[in-house]
Request: fold
Amino acid sequence: MKNKDLIKELSNRMNWTIGETADVVAALGNIISTKLSEGDSVYLDGLGQFETKKKGERISVNPANGQRYLVPPKLVAVFKPGGTLKNKLKEIDTNE
Reply:
């Protein structure tokens, strides 16, 4: 599902205009990214938790020339699904 499809589905379910729904989706994305950049985690009930993790430095190899180089540590955003979402996915998996 793409962003456009999500906005359309959400606007139909909430009886909002597409413009209002697009503003809400954009605001939600901005809030989540702001909180993650501040080091906070964001938990959405029924969905899961967004948080940041630090990836350590590592050595990588360029496959074209075999040259090794050091990749510095960085923060990455991760998502941990909640129990409700995990259970729904298990139900789908067992029914197929």
The mean pLDDT is 92. Strands lie at 42-44, 48-55, 58-61, 68-71, 74-81.
